[in-house]
Design goal:
The complex is a heterodimer of chains A (232) and B (293).
Chain A lengths: L1 E10 L2 E11 L4 E6 L5 H9 L8 E4 L2 E2 L5 H7 L1 E4 L11 H8 L7 H11 L1 H5 L10 H13 L5 E5 L7 H16 L3 E6 L2 H7 L2 E6 L2 E7 H6 L1 H7 L3
Parallel strand pairs in A: 3-8, 3-9, 6-7, 7-8
Antiparallel strand pairs in A: 1-2, 1-4, 4-5, 9-10
Helix pairs in contact in A: 3-6
Chain B lengths: L1 H30 L6 H18 L4 H24 L7 H23 L4 E2 L9 E3 L4 E3 L1 H23 L1 H11 L1 H6 L4 H26 L2 E2 L5 H14 L4 H22 L4 H15 L14
Antiparallel strand pairs in B: 1-4, 2-3
The chains are: A alpha/beta (232), B mainly alpha (293).
Chain lengths: 232, 293
Amino acid sequence: MLKVDNINVYYGNIHAIKDVSFEVHDGEIVALIGANGAGKSTSLKTVSGLLPSRTGSISFLGSPIDRVPAHKRVAMGLSQVPEGRRIFLQMTVLENLQMGAFTSKADTKADLEKVFEQFPRLLERKNQIAGTLSGGEQQMLAMGRALMSRPKLLMLDEPSMGLAPILVEQIFEIIKSLHKAGTTILLVEQNAEMALKIADRAYVLESGRITVSGTGKELAASDRIKKAYLGG
Amino acid sequence: MQFLSFLISGLSLGSVYALIALGYTMVYGIAKMLNFAHGDVIMVGAYLIYVVSTMQGLPIWVGFLASVVGCTVLGMVIERLAYKPLRGAQSLAVLITAIGVSYFLQNAALLIFGSSPKSFTSVISKKPLSLFDGALVISWEAILTMIVSIFIMIALTVFINKSKQGKAMRAVSEDRDAAQLMGINVNRTITLTFAIGSALAAVAGILLCSSYPTLTPYTGAMPGIKAFTAAVFGGIGSIPGAMLGGVLIGIIQMLANGYISTQLSDAIVFAVLIIVLLVKPTGLLGKKINEKV
């Protein structure tokens, strides 16, 4: 479904992503794990089109998207929940969700109902200004907003960041249920333990390079990964 | 009665400032730049209706239409040619470019129309309204200005809050990257903002020159600066702020004009701005900017 082939991304003179290649197949959950600053978010932003790659190519559903601007990638079925949620704080919950459906030609009403079913808290707070939501609710809103475009591939950037452990569990349950419902997922996480538990396959990023890859189980069992990312 | 008369002329002038201030504040909110050429678009709008209706003698509504359409296109062209190539450049470069565009428009008008003032024919030719046995005289221009401005402000508010494009504009103004991730075309949204702002400037120019009928290439400069002041006064980036700021600046200017001194009225307007910014740096309705990590 998604094929990232040998991309190199720079922030000015800083070489943030070095020869990174990875793939996401239809129906998978793929995790990118690694320490802070390893290049996980940069990789996602390059896939969604917010950052340009100097080399290589990214293809989605079989066609290269290197020249497709970010806003058109959404309509192709690529949706990203950005790091730090980035919901529109001054708009209402409902307006945020409507923005998520900006490119959608489908029945927005039915999609809204589906999101409210998945996240009942959002229905309760439908007309509230998004800035007044709690951290967990904001994460749910960010995910609900991304789902409104009916993505074929949902990319989640650090969905557990800054949330209490119980909320982290809840968010991962939701990711699992979205996956069950047929959404392919690319997950970026610092919380490697949780990510590897649900991932079919995973890639480990270290200072801008992919150093290890394998199935979620393999990586969770690997001594090296345990030491570096799983606290022992 | 005198107070009422000052108040009404202040409201009328203020609603013109508000229309212009909306252009400043929307462009600032969405494109994150100060478009100092905005005031000169007013002047272009006034010349357009002057050429079409006064010089060519076509009906006033044709001139009005020509002016609004002409300015809308002008705004989009300015954005495309002068500002779009600088997207991502430092804000000082954009600011200097905007000042350059302003001089360009003034000098182009100077070249075409010369420096001698043209006398603008008001869009209404009716004797002023005289109330209370002539104790209170209100010009129809003032009344028209207030009605048109209120109508436009309501329409704009509904557009921004209810329409899909309006919501997209708010989204872009709050978080450009996140808006892109929603599938919103940021470039097109910015163009639309310039189009709307310039159309409002054309209307403002026509109303302003109907009340103050001397037209020169520098006609737009001072109202432009006043309206910019109004936008900052109300909280730059805030649409209700621009409306409130514009009306207040107009009233303050007219009251200062009437009760204190004509020469000092501009100084008083700017003094009030300074005081407000000292007390509330974000302006009257400005929101505190949340630092994003």
